[in-house]
Amino acid sequence: MSIKGCQCARNMEDKNAIQCFQCQLAFHQDCVGISKSAFKVISSVSNIKWYCDECMKLLPDVKSLNKAVRDSNDALNTRIDKIDESNNLLRCELEAIKSLIQRNVDGAERFDGTVLSTELCNLKNDLNKSFADAVRCEVKKNIELVNDEVKSVQKTNVNDMKERENNIMMFNLQETDDDKDRVKEIIKKLSSEVKDQDIKRIVRLGPKAETKIRPVLIEMRSCAIKDLVLKNSFKLKTMHEDLDKVWISHDLTVDQRAELKKLIDEAKSRKISCPGPFNSSSADTLLDLFNSEIVRIVDMVAPCRYVKSTHVLSAPWFDSECRSLKRNCRKLERLYRKMKNDINRNAWRLALKEKIQQFSQKRNKF
Q1: Does any domain span residue 101?
Q2: Distance in angstroms (rounded) separating the CA atoms of residues 88 and 96
Q3: Model pLDDT for residues 128-164, shown as the tens digit of each residue
Q4: Does the first or last residue of the chain, that is N or C, have fewer Cβ atoms within 10 Å of its Cβ?
Q5: Which of 300, 172, 311 is nearest to 242 (CA)?
Q6: Does the pTM of the predicted model rise above 0.90?
Q7: Which residues are paired to 4 by β-bridges?
């Protein structure tokens, strides 16, 4: 029996009583102002919840409390799910660690020491390597480095000489504002075959200084034109009095200039060692000096090299008879080429056939 919540004096066994969902108190349908049709619907449908007036006043607080409880439950369930996922990951990692440990244990049980012994032997062999071998390897590396440097320097020198082969150097030419026109005029006077297009570039070398005359670099179009100009360099002395101290030469590299200076110093020293007036003995001395210098330069440029030559017969069976047959065959062939008749042709064919037979027999007998 439900607890009576209605204030009337009637009994609660009346069929028209309705119970509050929140406080569970019973009320008469007509006391709480519910129509019969509404009461009939509420009574027949189980999902409809009815609240009394007192509970309706408290309902907002209850709803907020229920919502807070539900949110807390949801958060707790989320954390529980995350903990379950972490537990699953830890379980998988533990299984992997167990399997790895088991494999290592199995490998350790199968290990017989052969791999370690091999490594120790290799290490011992490396340690037994002699000091001489180590020095030899290091020296070989250094030699290779030196060879590479020498090749690089030689290649650089060759390229430098190639770049300078068409150049002319002019020295002691007074500097003016019209240097280029003046140099062109001098070059054309030295060789009338030189044109303006044959002179590619004219430039002073080095920074300008009042106490020093800078040399002039003249780049010609080809080496042949440069040789034409240098061939007539002696004309500079007779051109003009301002050019009596001007001279021209090849554009030499640093090594070439050093070698030339060395030769000049040697010549000067030999000249000092042979003082006195010119006579027949001094002429002989100069001739000997000239010959020795020529031989020295030739030996430096093209040194003498001895080659042992051995002559080996390619066909030892080829004797005088074979030579005679070959000569006769060639003679008949020339005659046939000249006359163009059948008689000479047949004679040449017979001689050729005989030569081939004799050559084959002698080759087989040898």
Answers
A1: no
A2: 13
A3: 555 556 656 666 666 777 666 656 655 566 777 778 8
A4: N
A5: 172
A6: no
A7: 26
